[in-house]
């Protein structure tokens, strides 16, 4: 933005033109504080996304999903274009995949952020729904979940219910992404040109789709472990990295198979 402002006078032929540009940027800055995007330019979009780069919680799950769309989904679309594929069917699958990825990152990062930086970024609407304040959540996330007095407290029960709700939204996106990817694969095999443009052969497009959906493997693993091993308590999950995960992802890519979504049981 500093560069844009510095170039206003250089690009303006008359002083009135420069004044209009300064008014434009003043309105942009005012809109950022009011969460309003009145102008659509690359710089404005970047500045608007930067309002999330603080230590405040998302106001709602919808806002967290929109942030995932602005970040994760945009990158997935870019990778898809790099493969030379333009597909509405794949775009729909990637949209849900990116939102699931963003919400899982939120779930996984909530405990380390609370313990290391003493901040809570969980959606406020879920906290309000379960009568949880940020102070209570911060205290619970920093505490040892094995302590007897914490295991059976009403606040802990509310915390687990809140995580259940957030994980359910991520689970729904992941399952939808897996289902839409399977449907897209069927369109590829049938060579349906209504859904795809830009790919050379069906095998090339199938390989690209399978590799695009590889993030579904760690997403599904985390959601399944959160449900089965931790009873929706991320404090109880092992923070160590799964050493076999890269091998599993490579094996899935080599087999050219679409990964399955999270368990529905």
Fold and architecture overview:
With 265 residues, the protein is mainly alpha-helical. The protein contains 13 helices and two strands. It has helices at residues 2-6, 8-11, 15-33, 42-50, 61-82, 88-116, 124-129, 134-142, 148-151, 154-189, 202-212, 216-228, 245-255; strands spanning 86-87, 196-197. It has a two-stranded antiparallel sheet with strand order 1-2. α5 packs across α6 (88-116), α6 packs across α8 (134-142) and α6 (88-116) crosses α12.
Features:
265 residues, mainly alpha, two-stranded antiparallel ribbon, 67% helix, flat
Any chance you could write out the topology, listing elements then pairs?
Elements: H1 2-6, H2 8-11, H3 15-33, H4 42-50, H5 61-82, E1 86-87, H6 88-116, H7 124-129, H8 134-142, H9 148-151, H10 154-189, E2 196-197, H11 202-212, H12 216-228, H13 245-255
Antiparallel strand pairs: 1-2
Helix pairs in contact: 5-6, 6-8, 6-10, 6-12, 10-11, 10-12
């Amino acid at each position: 933005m500093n560069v844009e402002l510095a170039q206003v006078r250089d690009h303006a032929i008359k002083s009135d033109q420069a004044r209009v540009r300064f008014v434009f940027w003043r309105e942009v800055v005012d809109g950022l504080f009011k969460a309003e995007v009145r102008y659509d330019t690359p710089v404005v979009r970047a500045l608007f996304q930067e309002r999330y780069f603080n230590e405040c919680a998302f106001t709602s799950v919808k806002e967290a999903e929109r942030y995932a769309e602005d970040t994760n989904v945009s990158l997935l679309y870019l990778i898809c274009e790099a493969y030379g594929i333009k597909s509405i069917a794949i775009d729909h699958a990637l949209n849900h995949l990116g939102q699931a990825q963003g919400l899982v990152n939120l779930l996984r990062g909530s405990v380390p952020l609370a313990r290391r930086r003493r901040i809570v970024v969980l959606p406020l609407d879920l906290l309000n729904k379960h009568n949880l304040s940020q102070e209570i959540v911060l205290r619970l996330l920093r505490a040892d979940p094995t302590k007897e007095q914490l295991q059976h407290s009403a606040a802990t029960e509310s915390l687990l219910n809140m995580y259940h709700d957030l994980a359910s939204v991520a689970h729904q996106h992941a399952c939808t992404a897996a289902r839409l990817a399977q449907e897209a694969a069927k369109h590829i095999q049938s060579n349906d040109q209504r859904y795809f443009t830009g790919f050379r052969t069906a095998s090339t497009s199938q390989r690209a789709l399978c590799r695009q959906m590889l993030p579904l493997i760690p997403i599904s693993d985390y959601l399944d472990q959160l449900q089965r091993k931790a009873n929706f308590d991320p404090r109880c999950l092992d923070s160590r990295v799964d050493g076999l995960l890269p091998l599993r992802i490579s094996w899935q890519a080599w087999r050219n198979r679409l990964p399955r979504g999270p368990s529905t049981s």
